[in-house]
Design goal:
Layout lengths: L2 H12 L5 H30 L9 H48 L4 H6 L2 H43 L1 H48 L1 H6 L3 H27 L1 H25 L5 H42 L20 E8 L8 E8 L4 E5 L6 H8 L7 E6 L2 E2 L5 H5 L2 E4 L8 E2 H5 L8 H10 L3 H5 L8 E2 L8 H13 L5 E5 L7 H15 L3 E5 L11 E6 L2 E6 L1 H7 L2 H10 L2
């Protein structure tokens, strides 16, 4: 077994360690079920011997034997049913823990991991791939338990009937296993590729459906269909190959087993003719030989199924094993932060081959309003990402009230921030729940007050259920601008020391924007504020405006001084307001 297969098996078993007792019970049930079923074969052979010759039929013994057969069949069936309950419970509980572990780790991995992995692919791993693991476990437990017990039991029974013929069956066993093993190894890579393409398809579907309006607006429907058809065709070809090769396992092993069964039948018949065994024993031996080889057919099918399950499991475990954000246990930030921010000699780039921010320095005093402007791609949002520790600096440090932000936990640090982004995000729930999102023990009065400050109260009151109206990120019962107002209210309900606004009013009409700016100005009083803005009219009253280009500060000053300098800010301002 390859290292990554062995690792996958160990990882799956680690999630099952608390369920060993269920597996033991399942194994015991399998033993009772198989032995009961095999004893039926003995009883059948006896019944045959009770009526082997004309006029010599022992009806009393036959009826008694049939009664025992019915009891054994009922016992075998009930034990198999109970075994399935145990194995299904283990499989579903295990996959439940795997999903929980994957989702839990997603909450703690670096933002870079999420950014570099398609959302649809992550969703597919935690849903479809996890389901394949569950199916593989159920089949594996059921077939393996019964198969192993059947092989051992039938072997013992055959040895008690005829030792020499049993050896013929045993010698042929490795041939069947080699055939199954060879095919299983060949199918793993195909199943692995199949799961990867399925993840790509999920990502593409999510991307197109989420942005269907953009697709329609730019007439991209035809190309979208063509791209989907290409991915779908690739998935079809890979799936056909994987299914074809995996389906070879069962007929191949059946062919080998058929040859063995025929050989046993011929040799056993000759032995019976010579008087070395009874017809009933021959019937039993043929039945046992068939039952002995049957699990190898089933187990070979299980191997093919497990190859698909292992390929899916590896993708899920990539999420579980993704390194978490490095945290420090030293919570040294005081309860009330003044808001002094010092950025010292910071270097950062998303791609190490492409430089972005180099030797960046900035000193911000408590209560100052800092506006950040510059062309697209200059590093404005990246600076915000670093301030929020969505990414950590490559070199240098960022100090909050003189404390390096990497020396405290992110939760502790971020509790001092409130943030409103250009892209709105609302969770599925009531408006009340969305406004109070992240704020513990928020009262109704606090929620309504925040909504009024964000000028959202009036439109909320007009909704059918007011603050109890159910909304989501893709809801259509409120506009994009109203979603932004709710996001602003969500920031206003907290009492942050530092406020970050990244194009926070980009989806709001001009009249409402002025009202929101007044609310922001009130909210910014006594708080350090970082404002990323494209509309320069919104930052005229900023204490300091920094102009960025290529990850560097090229100008600093207030609105009037920068206009007098007639530099980059002057050009940006005139491009928006000059007629």
């Amino acid at each position: 077994m390859k290292k990554y297969d062995l690792y996958t098996v160990k990882k799956i078993l680690s999630f099952m360690k608390n369920k060993v007792h269920y597996l033991v019970f399942a194994l015991l049930c399998a033993i009772v079920s198989v032995l009961s079923s095999l004893y039926v074969t003995v009883l059948t052979g006896n019944a045959i011997d009770f009526m082997i010759s004309q006029g010599n039929v022992d009806f009393e013994k036959i009826i008694f034997t049939i009664t025992k057969i019915l009891i054994m069949v009922a016992l075998s069936s009930s034990m198999q049913w109970i075994m399935n309950l145990f194995t299904n419970s283990v499989a579903f509980s295990t996959i439940n823990e795997i999903r929980n572990a994957a989702f839990s780790n997603i909450q703690h991995v670096p933002v870079g991991f999420i950014d570099s992995t398609g959302n649809g692919d992550i969703t597919n791993r935690m849903t479809a791939d996890a389901e394949f693991i569950s199916d593989g476990l159920i089949m594996g437990f059921t077939q393996l338990f019964q198969g192993i017990v059947t092989i051992i039991s039938t072997l013992v029974f055959m040895l008690t009937i005829d030792f020499k013929i049993t050896l013929i069956v045993v010698v042929a066993t490795p041939v069947s296993l080699l055939v199954a093993s060879f095919i299983a190894k060949s199918t793993f890579n195909m199943f692995k590729k199949q799961t990867e393409i399925r993840g790509d398809m999920s990502s593409f579907i999510e991307e197109m459906i989420t942005n269907q309006k953009v697709v329609d607006a730019f007439g991209y429907e035809k190309k979208s269909i063509e791209r989907f058809a290409k991915i779908n065709e690739e998935l079809k070809k890979t799936s056909i190959k994987a299914t074809f090769f995996s389906s070879l396992t069962n007929p191949s092993t059946r062919f080998v087993n058929g040859l063995v069964y025929t050989s046993v039948g011929v040799i056993g018949a000759l032995s019976a003719i010579n008087g070395n065994m009874s017809i009933g024993n021959l019937s039993c031996f043929l039945s046992y030989a068939n039952q002995y080889m049957k699990p190898f057919n089933e187990i070979s099918g299980v191997f093919a199924e497990l190859q698909s399950a292992f390929a899916c499991a590896r993708r899920v475990f990539e999420i579980i094993d993704a390194k978490k954000e490095i945290e420090c246990d030293n919570n040294v930030l005081p309860e009330h932060i003044k808001g002094d921010v010092n950025i010292e000699n910071v270097y950062f780039s998303y791609n190490k081959e492409t430089k972005l921010i180099e030797n960046f320095n900035l000193d911000v005093k408590s209560g100052q309003k800092i506006a950040i402007v510059g062309p697209t791609g200059c590093g404005k949002t990246t600076l915000i990402n670093l301030l929020m520790r969505f990414y950590d600096v490559d070199c240098g440090k960022i100090l909050l009230d003189g404390t390096d932000i990497t020396s405290v936990t992110r939760d502790n640090m971020r509790s001092s921030y409130a943030m409103v982004l250009q892209e709105t995000w609302l969770k599925t729930g009531t408006i009340k729940e969305n406004i109070s999102y992240g704020t513990k023990n928020a009262t109704d009065d606090m929620i309504i007050s925040a909504a009024k400050k964000a000028y959202a109260h009036s439109f909320i009151e007009r909704l059918p259920d007011g603050y109890d109206t159910i909304i989501s990120d893709d809801t259509t019962n409120i506009s994009q601008g109203q979603k932004q107002l709710l996001c602003i209210a969500r920031a206003m309900i907290s009492t942050p020391s530092i406020l970050i606004l990244d194009e926070a009013t980009s989806n709001i009409d001009t009249r409402t924007e002025k009202l929101i700016q007044n609310a922001f100005n009130t909210m910014m009083q006594g708080r350090t504020s970082f404002v990323v803005a494209h509309r320069l009219s919104t930052i005229k009253n900023a204490d300091t405006i920094i102009v960025m280009r290529d990850g560097k500060i090229i100008e600093t000053g207030n609105h009037e001084s920068l206009l007098k300098d007639k530099g980059a800010y002057f050009s940006l301002y005139n491009s928006q307001f000059a007629h």
